[in-house]
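Escalation from tier 1.

The customer reports that the assembly of two entities below gives different structure tokens on two consecutive runs. Tier 1 could not reproduce it. I'm attaching the input and our single run for tier 2 to review.
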Amino acid sequence: MSNFIEEIIINDLKTGKYKNIVLRFPPEPNGYLHIGHAKAILLNYSLAKKYNGICNLRFDDTNPSTEDNEYVKAIVEDMKWLGWNGDIFFASDYFDIMLQAAIRLIKKGKAYVDTTSYEGIKLMRGDLNTKGTDSACRNFSVEKNLSLFQDMQLGKFENGEAVLRAKIDMSSPNMNMRDPVLYRVLNIAHHRKGDKYKVYPLYDFAHPIEDAIENVTHSCCSLEFENHRPLYDWVLAESGEWGSIPQQYEFARLNISGINLSKRELKKLVVDKLVSGWDDPRMPTLKGFRRRGYTASSLWDFCDKIGVAKSNSIVDIKMLESCIRDELNLTAKRVMVAIDPVELFIVNRSDKWKETVNFETVINSQVVASEKIEISNKIFIDRADFSIDPPPKYKRMQKNGNIRLKSAYIVHCEDYKLDKDGRVIQVLCSIIENSKSGEDISGVKASGVIHWVNSQSAVDIIVQQFNNLLDEQGVFNKKSVIRINAKMDKYALTHSGPFQFLRNGFYCKDACSSPKNLIFNQTVGLKDGYK
RNA sequence: AGGGGUGUCGCCAAGCGGUAAGGCAAUAGACUUUGACUCUAUCACUCAAAGGUUCAAAUCCUUUCACCCCUGCCA
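Tier 1 run:
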């Protein structure tokens, strides 16, 4: 699978434009990484690995008002979890170099200090159909600009009172070229630099310099920065002698149907405590996916399959689900769990009866595991596996039907009992003699197979199933998590997971699960061929 | 006529002038003591539309249409 960026790299290597490639993933530490970031990380990292290059993690920490060390820590953790390995850099460590570059620009007459108000600058920028007008400050002398910029750095201006602007073209059809702001005054402590700096560079000025300092060769970002590329190039061309000139390339960011990846929305959910945190299993953050049972390798697989291109697109969530299913199908420990359990009582066996059966896991006709479990006259089954009024083609239990209990006997359903609300509380069955799994000479044909849990060794657990966190309008979905009581055979507790709860889905133990309060998260359901 | 992008199967996505890869989904069937897995088959005479160039066009040219991005001292 190749993409247009890889083609560029192959070509640059072939023509000798670069001997070694240097890529980077440059998050701003103002939130947690989500699956959209995984696409960018995996793009950069896998290309670096494939072509013998390197991929840095660089924190683009140029705006202290939104950033925090908590995020730095979390991002590093997530990068490691994904399997990334490389050097970590901070844009804030380059602030002095950037300041020197800004001064070079001023000396060349390519930048000036503007003391016009925020509103004034906004007005003079014009709009899409109107050219901008020059600021009165545009023709300040180099000396005056130098002095003013010095004053900005010394803290002689309040926030918003002065900015350093590039002198480019106020009539450019590209709004980004209408004398963009390079530096603003921000009297805010930086999470790494404290109050050392009073001015902070803006993305458009900082980013190309960061890339150049790290000798980045291919600077990949998302589509909305296409209009910034001319400015990226301008900064590098005008601000000094950079050893290498990186090139910016843009690709479409990830969208997945049913998943909202807006950092703002996600943060709001956390702040409003509608979710348990950034790692809530419903969150599309990497920590959320991990807690939900997704593996890093399944995310790699997913990113590989969706490709990288320039067209805005929305990937079907089924694609992601298929990736994790494919992996878990091979790794998950099969367990029978009765979800929303109903008691099944065997009428033709005594209370003292118990027998051992061989529970086998078969994948693609291969027995991959075998386990001894016990059955008695009282077991639990899924409520959904019994129906008083079965729909057409129902292959589960109904009155007078014959159903195989997985790995055990075929049973005949004699009757059922309801409580006063009409809810099934007990299903009564009789074992069909000589129908035991593996030694069945009964000649009876079961219409289906269901799983079960022996009452004597059952432990209570809670399973959590998930739906979209937000609806199309971005409103919190109160049914985004459904908690259901279930019964699980305690032998399963000796395994750490991942699990496949037979005929239901893949599950993992939740981070908050404890021996007294066992909680399992549904990573993804099994495909359901029932029509 | 502001500028910059993108339009190939329901959803992603290859394709780079020589006659439409692949994945997901779907459908049909086989297998099955998981309605899972696995297997087999089907699924774009057509590439946003219309013209044109060519022996040959999704690929080149022209025009049109649709959608996305840009008027932060955010990134």
